[in-house]
Design brief:
Rossmann fold, disordered C terminus, six-stranded mixed beta sheet, two-stranded antiparallel sheet, alpha/beta, globular
């Protein structure tokens, strides 16, 4: 019985010693919040898309590549950001880890290139792609910001018939680092929406 009574305490300690970005934008943010890990997010997006693709993608087929493109602003489809470029990079790396051949779209006659904005290709341009080798799918993605909430949608599209073979959406609270990638920052006083100014985390207080 004593062992069972210790279980809630052990669970509580485990929670206190771990931080989670899912607690951002909540009353627990300053206590247990954490920075958004874009590498982990990129891995999750990749695993979700490849795991639910129908028809399934074929790993370890170097003759059939997966094309990746920069994530772009949903409201301005020819505009991207540092976050959009990083997410494309992390997803591409994860695809390679999973055994897929990854190609970055670089040819000016197959896509639009905006100086300083990364390489973008959305479904409206898929008919213009004429790669030198067969392509299994094209990764496209969009994001939209509302206050501190970032909405991301990622899709794998068949470049031949433009069918969506896999799609997922994600919602996350933007930490200070992620806000900075868009040239944004949190307000120091935002009592109206219940978001407090950044403060030292509990973990830092304990160990530093």
């Amino acid at each position: 019985m004593k062992k069972l009574s210790l279980l809630p305490l052990l669970v509580g300690i485990a929670i206190l010693l771990s931080s989670c970005s899912s607690l951002n934008c909540t009353r627990l943010e300053n206590l247990l919040g954490a920075d958004v890990n874009l590498i982990s997010l990129g891995n999750k997006i990749t695993d979700d898309l490849t795991g639910s693709a129908m028809p399934p993608l074929m790993p370890r087929h170097p003759e059939e590549a997966v094309l990746t493109s920069t994530f772009v602003d949903l409201n301005q489809l020819e505009k991207t950001s540092r976050m959009g470029r990083l997410l494309q990079s992390h997803i591409g790396a994860r695809l390679v880890q999973l055994g897929y051949t990854v190609k970055e779209i670089n040819l000016r006659n197959t896509m639009k290139i905006n100086p300083g904005d990364g390489e973008t290709i959305l479904s409206r341009h898929l008919s213009e792609i004429t790669p030198d080798q067969p392509v299994q799918a094209v990764l496209i993605g969009t994001y939209s910001i509302t206050n501190r909430t970032l909405y991301i949608t990622a899709k794998l599209i068949n470049p031949v018939n433009r069918n969506i073979i896999s799609a997922n959406s994600y919602k996350l609270c933007m930490d200070d680092n992620l806000l900075a990638m868009f040239g944004l920052q949190r307000k120091q006083h935002s009592q109206d929406n219940g978001i407090s100014a950044p403060s030292e985390s509990l973990i830092d207080k304990i160990f530093y």
